[in-house]
Amino acid sequence: MSDQTLSNLLKEDRRFEPPADLAAAANVQEEAYARADADPEAFWAEQAERLSWDTPWSQVLDWSDPPFAKWFVDGKINAAYNCVDRHVEEGRGDKVAIHFVGEPEGDTRDLTYSELKDLVSQAANTLADLGVEAGDRVAIYMPMIPEAIVAMLACARIGAPHMVVFGGFSSDALASRIEDCQAKVVITSDGGYRRGAASGLKPAVDEAVAKAAEAGHQVEKVLVVKRTGQDLGPDGWNDDLDVWWHDSVEKASTEHTPEAFDAEHPLFIMYTSGTTGKPKGILHTTGGYLTGAAYTHWAIFDLKPDDVYWCTADIGWITGHSYITYGPLANGVTQVLYEGTPDSPERGRWWKIIEDNKVTIFYTAPTAIRSFMKQGREIPDQRDLSSLRLLGSVGEPINPEAYVWYRHVIGGDRTPVVDTWWQTETGMILISPLPGVTPGKPGSAMIPLPGIAADVVNEEGESVPDGSGGYLVLTQPWPAMLRTIWGDDERFKDTYWSRFPANAERPTPWYFAGDGAKKDDDGDLWILGRVDDVMNVSGHRLSTTEIESALVSHPKVAEAAVVGAKDEDTGQAVVAFVILRDEAIAEADEPGEGEDVVKELRQHVRTQIGPIATPRQIMVVPELPKTRSGKIMRRLLRDVAEHREVGDVTTLADSSVMDLISAGVSSGKED
Predict the structure, then answer these.
(1) What are the Cα distances from residue 278, in Å, to 132, 179, 271, 491, 538?
(2) Residue 137 is part of a domain; what is its CATH number?
(3) What is the number of domains present in the chain?
């Protein structure tokens, strides 16, 4: 984090007070902070009572074996029942749960809570018929269609932990995740719509299933939604493996009794990038997670019964789990679900959807906001956005300029902006303004929510004074926290709890989020981004090691180093430095060939991991900056990637390497 950025943060003095009418009727008032501080467990017990429990808990929190927490001990609950059945039973069955908008113009449908309950029950019956039992893992690889949410809830209904993979990931990424969690069934679709065209998903699943089989794990069934009707080809269907959704789910009984599971029963595994090449399977359980997701959705978005809510995330990411599927549906909300991209078939598609559906709460990423800023305000100004009363930001820190533009142009200067900080691992938002209590300060996530204990500390774990920066830590457990890394308790402890272990001053270890943060002069928090080697690209966390591994798997590459460089559109962008193999160097030196190698490598990463990981720039270099022990100094590469003066090189084995790299032997940049 540069000194310039820090000085800019210090100068931010704009504040936006909560609108008086919203503050007067806000779901959460200022007293909640003191009440939660006085007795955090009683506070979370109160929030858990917002859900319907089959069996009451005997203990709110068991923290006797940190870092392994148990919340709502002995309680039993069913997540799907809480998201659909109870709303129907309480007389809200005719309320619209989902306004679905497909990418093709005019492709819309509404699902009421009664209809959603029937579909979830049918899917649960089908999964049971396919041999799925409580505890079995189910992989989901789907576009943003209602069936994706139905699939998640059907898994939760029968106690089968789901593992959703973003539909933009490659077959290799899908295969590694299927293999790691030993998924019994995969749920997918023939394809989805993306930028005006049908994009296939089933072929990637076929490849992934085959790769998993080669590695020794056999998927038993693949359940396929017919979304686009595209031709799967002669080898695209296996009657022994593949089952059509319309031939099974849509013909199944709508009668299904959900089973109550222990509060600590696994609900889902969500893979996130790690600093080793192997992705981490973050395990979330049921009772605490659902409590945290439902409470924070209700509190932070000040949810009212007549709100129309829209979160633009994909269900392949944690935001789609907590703030599309579980939090909103547990709260009985009416929400918009959109399949496509913001600019198809027109650049103002999102604003048209807000106008058409009278959206009142809108939750999106700074990357998207910055892209709209580049287009200009003329496009949103063509639409009536007056229904909006609250805006949210998620995925990465939002820069003050984007915050103010969002509030002014999209919110008409009348809407609070809730800038939310949380992670895949936390399961729920932890730091955010409360819109009826907390002033908005552009670029700051403000303060921890009631019931959350967070601090910014130095290397020794001492709380830093206002105006200083350090490491963001969580000093107490919270309900939606990850329980472990799937199949690897030691990695869980090492990754998150070893940086600030228990000692005489702190009886239990602190969770280290991996983010740097700063307290401003008011004590409000500014998240400064990752301090390890994980990049945040458009709100998606990607491992440098995973991308480096993909590059080195190309026959022309001898070695690679990847860094995240600041990017005004995506927050961070992938920049790669590669050393070519000897036989490839001569080829790259021929006129025009260097650019071809770079294009080839960019395409290779795209194929191996997915489009989101494609390097913005690849530089072909003769050497990489390494310490005497062989560690690559990515800090120096970041200096080059961000066009800064190269920092201290005294620890390098050969300091002249940076002169060669800075001279830029060869580079390739996306047009």
Answers:
(1) 27, 12, 10, 11, 21
(2) 3.40.50.12780
(3) 2
Is the distance from CB of 165 to CB of 201 less than 8 angstroms? no
Residues in the chain: 671
454-457/469-474 β-pairing: antiparallel
SS3 letters for 514-557? EEEEEECCCCCEEEEEECCCEEEECCEEEEHHHHHHHHHCCCCE
DSSP symbols for 586-610: HHHHSTTHHHHHHHHHHHHHHHHT-
Residue where a domain stops, chosen among 238, 272, 306: 272
DSSP percent split of the chain into helix, strand, coil, nearest 5: 35, 25, 40
**H helices, E strands: number in the chain:** 24, 31
Both structure tokens of 637? 């590469």
Count of CA atoms in the C-beta half-sphere (13 A) of 531: 17
Q: Which two tokens stand for residue 132?
A: 């799925």
Residues 596, 650: Cα–Cα separation, whole Å: 35
Q: Is the dihedral of CA 376, 379, 384, 390 positive or negative?
A: negative
Helix (H, G, I), strand (E, B) or coil at 203: helix
Find the helix packing angle between 593-608 and 582-589, rounded to 10°: 130
Point out the domain boundary residue: 272, 307, 333.
Answer: 272
Considering the domain boundaries, does residue 288 fall inside one? no
Give the pairing of strands 191-194 and 197-200.
Answer: antiparallel
- DSSP H helical ranges for 434-543: 489-496
pLDDT tens digits for 326-372? 999 999 999 999 999 888 888 999 999 999 999 999 999 988 888 88
- CATH no. for residue 576? 3.30.300.30
The CA-atom distances, in angstroms, between 290 and each of 53, 144, 295, 299, 310 are: 11, 22, 8, 14, 19
Is residue 429 included in any domain, yes or no?
A: no
Q: What is the pLDDT of residue 376?
A: 84
Residue 170, CA atoms < 13 Å, CB-side half-sphere: 17
Q: What's the half-sphere exposure (Cβ side, CA atoms, 13 Å) at 23?
A: 14
Does residue 193 belong to any structural domain of this protein? yes
Residue 398's pLDDT band (cuts 50, 70, 90):
confident
Model confidence at 72: pLDDT above 50:
yes
Cα–Cα distance, 631 to 206 (Å, whole number): 39
Structure tokens, 603 = 């395409």
pTM for the model? 0.84
- 164, 206 in Cβ contact below 8 A? no
pLDDT on residue 330: 98
592 falls within a domain: yes
Under a CB-based contact definition with an 8 Å cutoff, are residues 219 and 186 in contact? yes
Range of the domain at 246: 113-272
The candidate with the shortest Cα–Cα distance to 175, out of 133, 141, 152, is 141
Q: How far apart are CA 187 and CA 221, in angstroms?
A: 9
pLDDT tens figures, 476-530: 999 999 999 999 999 999 999 999 999 988 999 999 988 888 899 999 999 877 7
163 three-state secondary structure: strand
